[in-house]
Structure formats: C-alpha cells, structure tokens
Write a structure and sequence with these properties.
Six copies of one chain form a homohexamer.
Chain A (H helix, E strand, L loop, with lengths): L1 E6 L4 H14 L5 E6 L3 E2 L5 H20 L4 E4 L7 H7 L4 E3 H10 L5 E5 L2 H13 L6 E5 L14 H15 L4 E4 L8 H8 L3 E3 H14 L18 E2 L7 H4 L2
Parallel strand pairs in A: 1-2, 1-4, 4-5, 6-7, 6-8, 8-9
Helix pairs in contact in A: 1-8, 4-8
Chain lengths: ~250, ~250, ~250, ~250, ~250, ~250
C-alpha cells in the first residue's frame, strides 16, 4: 500500500519529522511517500498562510495520485485545503486534526487540543465544530511559534507541558491531542509523563489512511466532492486548471 | 494482533456473518476471535433488548481481555453497552455505528444510515447525535426484522434498496451506512449497484481496532471511563461485581 | 392512587430515605410503594454499575405494574434504565433527574446540579443534554461516595455546601438540584441556608407521577417506546424475556 | 390550595372553556380561580396581540397573588408575558406550552404541537427552542382562527384532525399537544380517535401548578427573575409601576 | 431620508444622548427624528420594565410611520418590542443589539457585550442566541444602574472599563459592544483607550436603517410579521387595537 | 468614500454586472472601484475553484487598500477567501453571503437562498451555519451553471423562479436571497413577481461597507485576524509573502 504524506508548508525538516512519525506506525507493507510543498509559506500560522499553502499542496496530491498513491495525508494540523483536495482527488484525503479527533473519540469523552499560536486557536475551534466534536473538545494555545519546535534551545516543550497540565486540571481532559505536526516526536514521552492518552495527528492519519484503503473506500463523487468542472484558469494559475492538473 | 468480536445477541449464525466480514478486511497478522453472548435476546430491537444484551456482552469482553485480546468490538449497530464496556476494560472498545460513521466522515459530507426496524431508528438518532454527526446524517428504517436478514426468501434486500434509493434522492446522501451487523455481506454488491460508498460497521470497526492498537492507545482511565469501584453486587448478579468479573 | 418507587441499587437504607422523602410530599390518597432491587450493585457510581442495576429494576417495575401501580419512579438520579422501562411498561415511568430539572425549569433560568462523584458528572451532563437543558444547567461533583451520605461522621454535607456556594457565585445558579436520591432529607435545611430553591429529585418525581396519572397519560406505544417484541432470551437471562416478564 | 388561572385575552367564553378543563383535573382541595383579563385583544394571534395582552394579565396575577393564590397559570398557549410575570410575582407562574411539553416529555420522544394560525407557528417554534425541545418537537398550524374554535359550524375540528394525521404519518409523532387553550375540551375525544397521548396545556398547567406548590417551590428571586426595581412609570401606565402594582 | 428613533423609556435626557450619537453618524441627507415614549418606565431594567415599555414604543412607531419615517430604531439595547413592532409596521424596524452584533460580526470573530445590570444579562443572552451569535459572543454586566450613566459623580465609567479589561483578557474578545443606549458617547474614548473596535448600538442602528432604506427593503408581510388582524381591544387598551393604531 | 469591489473569478463581464448593481445603490459620494482578478478560474463552482480564486483576490485587495480603498467587497456569493483577506487587510472586508443574510435578518424570520449549482449548496450551508443563520435559512440549488446566467437563451431565469416558488411554498420563506453575484440584475423584477423581499448580495455588501466605514470600524487586529507574520514564501508564491504583498 502506498500512502502519500504532503507537508503543505515548505520546510523540509518538518516533513522529515512527520515522515519519521508516520513510518513508526505504518503497517508492514505500507510505503509512506513524504513530500514537501514546492511553493508557499515556510510555516502555516493563521488564515493567510493557509490560503497560500493550498496550491502547492494540491499539486503534490495530484502528482501523488497519478504516481499510484492510494491515499493522501495533509501533514498540517489545520487540515489546510482538505475540501479542495477531496474534490480534486479520487483517493481518500485525510487531515491530521480530523484523524486525531477520530482516534481520541474512541478512547475518551473529553479531549483537549494543545496547539502552537493563539492565531491558530480560532481556526482549530472551527474545525472542531465541523468534525462534530465541540461538545467535548477544548483548544489551547501554548504560544509557541511553529518553527521554534525544531529549536532545542527554545522553551517550547515547557510551554506545551504547562498547557497540558491546565488541560487535565481545568478542562478535565481525558486525552490530549497535539495540535501541530511538528510535535509528533514528543508523543511517547508525554504519554509517560502525564499518564493519559496523548495523540499525534500524523500517526493517527497514517492508520486512518490504511483503514480506508483496506475498506476499499474512496471519496464520494456525488455532491460536495464532485470532481471540479473543466474550465479555463487564467494567468499565473493556468497550470492549476482542473483539466491540466488532473491530466 | 488479537481482536475480540463479541456478538451481543445470542444468535450464532449472526456471529458467523459478522466474523466473515471481519476476517475479509483484517490485516495479515490480525487474529479475529469471534464469540456469541451466552445469555440474553436472540436479536436486539429497541431499548429493552439492549438492556439485556449488556451482561452477556461484558462477560465476554472481560474474558477476552484476560485471554489477551488487544481490542474489543461490539458487533451490534446499536453500540449496546459501549460506555459500560469502556469503563470495565483497559483495551479499546469499538462500536459498529461509531466506527462506520467515522469512516464515512472522511469520504462524504452527507450520510444516510439504513437500519432494520422503526423502533431502532430513534436510538440510532441519539447515537448519531452523540458522535457529533447529527448535522450531516439521516437515519432510515427499512422495516426489516433483524433475523429476516438471514432468510433468503424474505424481501429484506428489496426493502433495503428502496430506502437507499430514497436516501440518494431525498437526503442527497453521498455515502450509505448499513445499520445492522447482519447486512455486512451485502456491502460489495450494493456499492456496485448504487455507485456511492457503502459502509459496513463490522469491517469499519475491525480496521479502527487495528488502528488504535497500532497507535498504542487504550481507553483513558481518567474521568468518564475510570475503572468501576469494587463493591458488592447482590443476588443473581453477584458474578458481575467488578471485583469478580475483573479478577 | 398507587405509585411505585424502585430503588435500583440494593441498599435498603437508601430506599427508606427515598420513601420518606416521597411520602412527605405525596398527596392525600397517594400510596407510595417503595421497593429495593433484589440484585445488582449496592450503589450506582458510573456506567458499569448502571448496566447491572437495570435487570433488578425492570423486574420490580414489571411486578409493580401487575400489582396495580399507576406510575413508576426510578429512585436514582442517573435515570438508570429509563428507556428500557418505558418500552416495557404501559404506566408512566419517571426519572429523578428529569423530574427535578422539569420542576426547576418553571422557577429559575440557570440551574446547577450538585452530584456525588466525578465519574457521575459526565453521565449526568449527557442526561442534561437529553432533557434539553444544557443551555442553562451546570453539573458539579462534590467528591462524595454515595454510601457516605448515610454516615453522619463523613464530611459529605460540608462538601455539598461548598459546591453549592460555588454554584451560586461562579455559575450564577438561580436554583440548585440535589443530584443523588440519598441527599433528599437535606432539602429543607439547604433551602433555608442558601435562600434559593433547592430541589430533590425524589419529591419532584412523586408529584410528576401524580400529575401524569391525574392527566390520564400513559407512555406512548408508538415509536421509541413500542412494547418489546416477544422473542427468546437465552441462558441466565431467560426470566427477562418480554413474554415471561410481562406475563 | 388556590390556583389562579388568567385568560390573557378578553373573551370570557374562552376563560370558561379553560376553567372547565382546569377543574376536571384539579385535585380534591384545589380551588381554581379563573379570571378574564379586563383589557386588550379578544384573541391572541401573533406578536402584536401578545404585547397588548401582557398589561391586563399582569394586573390579574398581581391581584391574585395578593388575594392568596399560591400559583398562577397563563391560560394562553403562547406563554404570553411569562418572564415579566415571573419577575413580578413570588408565586410560581406556569405557561401552557411549557407545561404541556413537560408532560409530553415523560411519555414520548417525538411530539407535534398543532396550533391555530400560521402566524402563531413561528412564535411557538421559538418557545419550543427555549424549553429545550427543538430536537424532538414539530409545530403545525391548522389554519383555524382562534375564535372559530367556539363556533360549531366551522370546520375547525376537521382541520385539526387533518394536521394530527399528518403529524403521526410524516413527523412520526408519538404524542400530540393541542396548541391553543380553546382546544381543551377536544382532548378526550382525540385520544380515543388517534390512539396516542393527546395533551391539553390547561390541564397540564393545573397539575404542574399543584406540583410546584406541594414541593414548596417559588420563583427564584436571584438573577433573571429578581423583583422589579421600584421606579416611576409615566403617563397612562403609572398604575403598572412596580411600587403601585405590587403594593 | 427620514429615520425615526424611539427611546422606549420615558427619560428625555437619554433620548438626547441617543439622538446625538445618531446624528454624528447619519449620512448627509438623513433626518433623524428622535422621540421619547410618553408612557411607561423611566429606564428598562429586566423583563418587567420591558413589558411596559412596549405600548408607548408602538404608539410612537405607528405615528412616525404615518408621518413619513422610512425606518424605525428602537433605542434600547434590549430590543424591546421588536417583533410586535415589525408585525405592526411596514417600514423596517431595527434593534440596537441586533445592529451592533451585525456590525461586529464583520470585523471580529469573538465579541463581548458589556451591559449595565446583572438582571439584563440573561435577557441579552437570549437575544444573542436569537441573532445566531451565541457561539462567539459573551455578555458581561458592569453592575451600573441605567440612570447612573448620566451622573458624572458615579463610578459607572470605571466599572465599565473593568469589565472591558476582563473581556479582552478572559473572553479573548476581539471587539466590544456597549450594551446600553446610554453609553453611546463613550465609544470614541474607549476605542482609543483599549485599541480594539468598540461598537455603540445607536450608531450601528442608524447606518443599518439607512442601508435597508437604500436597498428598498421593507419588513416581509408573509409569515411571522404578517400585519395584525383587525379585532377589538377592550378596556384601557382600546386605542392600541390594530384598526385604531394603524388607521 | 472609496469602496473596492473585487470579482474573484476572472470573467470581466460578471464584474460589470456586479459593478452595475453596486453603483445603483451606492450613496452619493461613494466611489465603487470594480476590478477583476487577474488569475484563476473563470467561474467559482465548488471547493476547488474557490481555492484558486484566493490568490488573485488577495492581490487586488492588497493593491486596493494601498490605493486608498476604505473597504473591500468580495463579489462572489461563496465569500471566497474572506478570512485570509481579513487577516491581511486593515480595512473592513465584506462577503456577499454574509451581507445579504445580515440584511435579510432585519426584515424576515425565515430565509431561503437560491444558488446556482448543487455543488455550491453544501459550501453555502456551511457559511450559513458560520453566520449563525442555520436555524432560519435554507439553501436551494437551481441547477444553473454560473456562466449561463449571462446567456439570455438559457432557461436560467425559469429555473430560478421555480426554486423561488418552492421556497415560498415548502420552506415558508419570508424573504429570498439570490445566491450568486451574477443574479444581481434580476432583483427588482423578482421582487415584483413574488411579492416578498428579494435580496442581492452585491447591493447589500455595498451598503454594509458604507455602514462600517461611516462607523469608523476596521477589522480587529487582535486574535483571529491578527496580521500575517512576516516569513518567507517559496517558489512561485514568493510575491504573496506578507512582507511583499503588504509592502
């Protein structure tokens, strides 16, 4: 089985972190192909960055599907471009936030997501609503710039732990979801430290992708995710017209 | 990996149908152990039957966990006894309805569940709400007694198809979920016939179980699913006291 | 008028407390018949205990209806087994939580329920939602084991009062609901002490039962509460098959 | 026990109908004092009439409380002036719609209200939401002017029955609530004709009033229903200033 | 363009404050006609005062419409009498709370309303729900009697600022709405002081009124706001019968 | 006052239609500057087209703000790119759908949006939820390709009218919102034909923009719409990095 993992930001070291987390849980026989978007922001922090992460992301998913990938993962916790990707692709497309919440929902009633920056909190709350989890999920921001997660001298881990403690005490969280693909390698340590389930979206998405492929399920092409209508795309965006990108 | 599948009704032929569906999708290396409850109703149709399916179900899950199962599936679409099972067990426990809706949510926006009897429709609508899917899920009843699904001379399949047609036309469903464990073997045929994703809860639950085990996730023991307090259980129910059953 | 009050746990002293509270408010001419379940847990604390309180409860309701009871009260604040009981019985069946919230809703906009243990808080929050009161009801746990309510040397009362104070100050509660049948005899004192309406579920349920009987209302047998279908129940649960229990 | 029933419209024959329905269900020892508002519209159909039914209604409730009534019923299905009455009075104040929905919620999961005019449907839907019953209650209008209910030559009854049939078939209603105080005397007949619980708000409100009085519950004076602040009311409305009306 | 602004309380100095705020933002060519209700409470604090502010308010709107006003503003933040006014009038009728929330919704995701008295908080929360803004709006009360806003020696401003600080820190409000018509003249100062958008309902309502008039939109007379049916109004309220008031 | 209207699709004739509708309602002194996006799809039908309409849209808004526009309108009913635009710009940014629903909410309780294609219906339903209008708004699709609106030989108008009739009869809509910028010039005719308010998003957005500018309100830069952080944007998207575009 071949699963495509696209990092929609353009920082290759974050792709490596996500790919490592993905391969740790992938089943024997699953080939995780990890790619970095070739255009757009080096990190995704808020609505503006999200908009410009989508073109590069869709390009990679289209290429991956043509190259035989059976499912695609958007390796960013904001589930950037998820609906456009599902309309474009026939293979299942999975977001980290939805996969992590799905896994959490089987083992806990109250969940807290700890994300990086305050400006990502409101978009995540909207996702939580969309996935039907508002009644039992809180979102906290640890005030950590995304790229500082890769800097061992930053106090990113300490801030994350502080919010996890508050989540357990004030939100009465029964499980914690790590709200950034860049936090994936902390999962095992944090589980031990806090004694509750800690869920990383990358790992959850890989298993969910395997699950959908094994079930023979692909994105429904009736309704919301009907394939894009062929039509001209003008100017610099011509290469993205459905006819061209899906050729 | 060893996954326990418990049929909470006492009809062994339905266990066989579910076990067959489960083994069709189980990963290489996954051992599906299927058992039939030893006590209670021969089929589960409505709130009353549900109540009496729980003791036999929990007995099997407790035994299965002791025997080394790494996850348990409740093979009834009503997700009978799910909360009690999660409180009792440490291993993940998965319901068919929640697993099927979870799978559907990754590939479609609007979903219709087609179940057997009208009296099961309202309990399922409450489950749909609980899983946060009310905004995009409808439930239809095909007026089929559960056990007639095993009778080739009944018109069960025709009634099911009639409701699927209505689901596509009136509900604008993008994917169909089969709302009874006994419908599992129709999945492949119905996908071809209707051209939309058709999801069976048994298969979805098996893959979800594998997913949670691979992620190293077990039921949170903080909060709603804290282990039962040891206390006397009187009369005929003494064997179910937490101390005895979990011994 | 004859009203059945069933304590679904097996501790007779708690039945006595509830029966006392019930008779204090019963109308002249109302006969409250109080019975203790003959099987199952000595107290109900969480989902697991709930499951094993149901068989004994239903046995008593079936017997009580045959003996001429015109309404039945489930004397546990978790409204354990309410749906199964309504499907089985023709007479109205009333839960303490729903009766108390109903009474509170006529005299206050914001309500706080103070219950015993944290593990009962989440099941109660789900009940509150089910009864349509989430928008104006909070649930607090006082960290009191149920049976300690009967022990005068415990600090149960002090802990209860502490949560009531927080309810008034932080939740801006306008009325308090006592979230355990075992708290019934504190109602009058707490009203005086706190100066707001304090509502006990047992008393509220008795009056609601009288109300429904006087209105000539019985459980609708169309839809969700249609009578159980006659079918075999196997093994130790044979005595609970609809045919036998409703004979 | 003395219960005040105020008809907030100024048609005395409707007061008589409601009083008759009230006395049929009142407990032995309950004295139902029925009064007709002395000012305002002869029937309440929509938002505008509602506004002008409130002054006369409050005058009667204030007078009734001074004269010793222990609870007050607003005998109009729109629950006109309910919040203002609760703020003014110390005794419990009960609306027909909330009392009927409360009774229905104990015996059925899905409920349909059949009211008179389309223009009353939207205000009733807002009430249904307010009482937390939107998830399980539909409102239908039978296109009957309120006062035609008293005219035997009108086809009011036929139109009502037509909507009840649709409620059972299309809404899958398990119980019917009659959405106008003027329909009270049809209850018994309609129960027999349709075979499901049919609930009249007047009867339900009387029993609910008795229930609250027996429980010793009065409107909370903390928060939303705090007593009106004494202040001047100018012009023609001076007699309604809190100081005067509550003197 | 002629816009009617009715102060539904009977304190002329508050009308002057509102009229001043209105004229500051009115377009060149817009004539703001400000009137004070001739009957009822001197300030509106809670449900009871609201009920008695409606008759005088409707009288002024009816008179204003006859005199050629093209839109009417109810200059009280509780949106007192809004539905009745819309049913009566053909011209658009605008409430301060709805206009302010509407403006805020275009420039911020999270909003906090700071109002005067605790007893106004719950009615405002119900309005916020009605306008579909519950998910992103909080209401705070500053414990300021309405008329003290006009008294420079009171500490009203200090209390208001204290709640605004809490709104920014604890609610993470992105914009503040001033929840009383009497606060209008503080808007500019508070914007500077707090560095976030601060919105006054009077100004917002004036611009919204101009907007609706320019769009040629009037209240729909189909459904909820259908014109009142002509019928007798008895006693002191005869002058308010639809036939008379709309003559 | 200078208001920027950006057509986010690349069809200049649709810009002209929108600009015409905008100028018809613009106040004396308001200068509507209409521009067509220079890149991307010729029409926006579904999630995929939406993603590629955003870059060109943001480019025009950034340029317009620098050139002195005081507010920006996104002239597409899907409110494409609204959040990203608000984060980028300091001036208010207005979507057609939100402006039209806002106007409708002041004059009607039940609203139906009639849009073009089924694939646009689900994204619009999500917008309706986001704007808090789900409880009173339905969305219908007339099965009209966007560009056929400009083709007089198509039966687009007939299909639109058919859905409007259904909206009035089945949805009991009190006002109709036209769900595509290309329908703007039909507004006046349809109002006359159907006798209910008909609202075009372009006109509504122009007035809303004037309203916000007159109130001195700009997008809050605290929280969800904080300005994008300066960071590298790689590859073909470098011109869109916050530093460059906002320079």
């Amino acid at each position: 089985m071949k699963i495509l993992l696209v990092n929609p930001n353009t920082t290759a070291s974050m792709t490596a972190t996500a790919a490592h987390a993905a391969r740790l849980v992938a089943a024997h026989g699953t080939d995780v192909v990890a790619v970095t978007s070739s255009m757009g922001p080096v990190s995704i922090e808020g609505y503006y960055d999200e908009a410009f992460a989508v073109p590069g992301l869709l390009l990679e998913i289209a290429a991956g599907e043509k190259a035989g990938a059976q499912a695609a993962i958007i390796a960013c916790f904001d589930d950037t471009g998820l609906d456009a990707a599902r309309a474009m692709a026939n293979i299942p497309v999975i977001g980290l936030c939805e996969a992590a919440l799905c896994a959490a929902s089987f083992i806990a009633q109250r969940i807290t997501i700890v994300t990086t920056m305050e400006r990502s909190r409101l978009p995540l709350e909207r996702l939580v609503y969309r996935y039907g989890m508002s009644g039992r999920t809180k979102v906290r921001a640890a005030d950590i710039p995304v790229l500082s997660l890769e800097d061992p001298s930053s106090n990113a881990r300490a801030r994350l732990c502080q919010q996890m403690e508050l989540a357990l005490r004030e939100d009465r969280a029964e499980a914690i979801v790590l709200g950034c693909a860049g936090m994936a390698d902390l999962t095992a340590d944090l589980r031990k430290e806090f004694g509750v389930p800690v869920i990383d979206g990358v790992a959850a998405a890989v298993k969910q992708a395997e699950c959908l492929v094994a079930l023979g399920l692909t994105t429904s092409k009736v309704g919301a995710y009907a394939s894009p209508i062929h039509k001209p795309y003008l100017g610099a965006l011509t290469p993205f017209s459905p006819e061209v990108i899906m050729a």
